[in-house]
Automatic annotation (TrEMBL), chain A:
InterPro entries, A to Z: SoxD (IPR006279), SoxD_sf (IPR038561)
Protein name: Sarcosine oxidase subunit delta
The organism of origin for this protein: Larsenimonas rhizosphaerae
GO MF: sarcosine oxidase activity
Pfam (any one): SoxD
Segments for region (Disordered): 88-130
Automatic annotation (TrEMBL), chain B:
UniProtKB keywords: Cytoplasm, FAD, Flavoprotein, FMN, Nucleotide-binding, Oxidoreductase
Reactions catalysed according to its record: sarcosine + (6S)-5,6,7,8-tetrahydrofolate + O2 = (6R)-5,10-methylene-5,6,7,8-tetrahydrofolate + glycine + H2O2; sarcosine + O2 + H2O = formaldehyde + glycine + H2O2
Similarity-based family: Belongs to the SoxB family.
EC number: 1.5.3.24
Span of domain Rhodanese: 35-79
Coiled-coil intervals, chain numbering: none
Keyword Cytoplasm: yes
Top-level taxonomic group: Bacteria
Name of the featured protein: Sarcosine oxidase subunit beta
Cofactor(s) required, per the database record: FMN; FAD
Amino acid sequence: MFHIHCPYCDEYREEEEFHPRGQAHLARPATPDTTTDDEWGGYLFFRDNERGIHHELWVHSVGCRKFFNITRNTATYEIHETYKMGERPSVTAENLPDSQHQSGVQAATSGWQTVGARPESASLNQEEQV
Amino acid sequence: MKRYSGFGLVKHAMSHHENWERQWRNPTPKKQYDVIIVGGGGHGLATAYYLAKVHGITNVAVIEKGWLGGGNTARNTTIVRSNYLWDEAAALFEHSMKLWEGLSQDLNYNVMFSQRGVLNLGHTLQDMRDIQRRVNANRLNGIDGEVLDAKGVQDIVPILDCSKNARYPVMGASWQPRAGVARHDAVAWGYARAADSMGVDLLQNTEVTGFKIRDGRVHGVHTNRGDIEAKTVGCVAAGNSGVLAKMAGFKLPLESHPLQALVSEPLKPILDTVVMSNHVHGYVSQSDKGDLVIGAGIDGYVGYGQRGSYTTIEHTLQAIVEMFPIFSRVRMNRQWGGIVDTCPDASPIISATPVKGMFFNCGWGTGGFKAIPGSGHVFAATLAKNEAHPIAAPFSIDRFNSGALVDEHGAAGVAH
C-alpha cells in the first residue's frame, strides 16, 4: 500500500484515501477548431505508459478533494515526490542518475527480491540461510 | 511428434512413464526467419501455430524473454465466453469460441475446456436492462444467451445468496451455457508442442532489446542472443507492448495495470459454473483441482510490478463473501498479479503500425485468455497476407483517431 504525501494537506495518508487519474501534464489542444483528428486522438487516448519514472495525476478523493501530481516509478512503485497542480516535477527520468530506476528493471544486485515497493528495512528482503 | 492417445498412455505406463519425448525442442536462433513473433504467451504461440498450419509459413521464430506461457497466460482466471455486445467484438470472440470447441482434438492436447456456463449477475434495474440488451444482441449474432430471473439463478447456483437481505440483492443474470473454463497452461503447451512439430522455433530466455528499422521498414530484431532478421514482425507482448512500441518509435493507446487473482485451498466440488458480477466487482469458479479461482479488479494506477495492492484483494473478497456467505471461512492459498494492457475502449488492438512489416496484437486488457485461439487465428492471417483479416480489421489502431471505437466496457467491465 502506498503512503502518499498530499501536498495540500501536508500529511502522509494511506492509498485508500486517494484515487489515481492517469498521466499528468496533458495539455488540451489550444486551438480546437484547427486541431486534426490525429492530434485529438493523441490527446484523448495515446499515453506514455512508461515503465520507470512516470508523472501522474491523483486526487485526494476522501481528504481535501484536491488534485495533485505524483512522480512514481511504475516498476519499483517507489514514490519520488508529490507536487501541487501547476508545478513542474523536480525528479524526471532524465535527471535521475541511477540507471536502475530509469529502466525500471529489477536488478539482481540491489538485493530486492521482488519488483515492488521498497521495503522499510533491507533485512526484510533477505532470505533466511538454511 | 508422437501423437498422444489412450494407447500411448498404457504403453508408457509399462516403462513407468520415464520415456516420454520432450514436448518441444530448444533450438538455437537462426540468422533469418520469414516471420518473428515477439512474445511466447498463449496469443503468440497460437499465432505461430496458425501461421504454420493454415498458411504454411513454418520458418517462424517465437521470441520469449522468460519461459513459454509464463506471463499472463499463467496468471488468469481461465474464463472463456463470447457474450460481447457489439458486432465487431462478438464476431471476434465467437470466432474464438468456435475454435475452443474443437481445440483439444485440433492440438492433440487436452486443454480441459469445460463448457460449464457463465452467469453475469445483475443487481440493479439498470444492470438487468443492460443484460437484456446484451443477450438480445448476442442472439442476433448467433451467440447463445438467456436472461434469468433471481429464481433461475438460484436453481443453477444453490449456494449463491439470492435473498432480499443482501446489500445488493441478485435480480437476475445473463447465462451463456456454452461458456466455461479451460486449463491455462495446457493451452500454451498444446500450441507450443503443435507449432514446434511443424518447424516453428520457440526461443526461450531470449529478450528483444531493439528493432532493426531502415527507411520506415522493419528488418529484424536485436536480442540478447544476437540479431535475427525477418521482414515481418508480430508483437504479442501484453503488458509490455508499450515498451516494445517505444523501442520502435511510436506510442500505443494503452496503459498497463496490475490485475490480480487468487485461489483458495482445494475444496470438494461445490460450484459447477462460473459466477461473475460487475456490480459488486468479483468473479469466481472452481477448478478441477478444487480450488476456488477468484478474480479481482485492476489497480487504478499504471504499474509493471507483477503484484497487486491489498485494498483491491480486500474489496474483491468482500464481494465474494457477499455473494457466497458459505465461503466466508475459506482460506486463500495463493495470490498473484499480471500486467494487463488496457485500451480506452476495452477492446483489443490487432493492427499494422507506422513501421512497415511490424504488426501489434495487444490491448486485450483484462480478458485476453478467452480470445487466444481466435486472436492467434486472425493475427496469423494478418501477418501472412500483410493485410488485416476481416474480423481483425475493426480493431486497427486507426480507430483512436477516426473515433470508430468498439466500446465494450459493459461486456468487458472489470470482470473478464
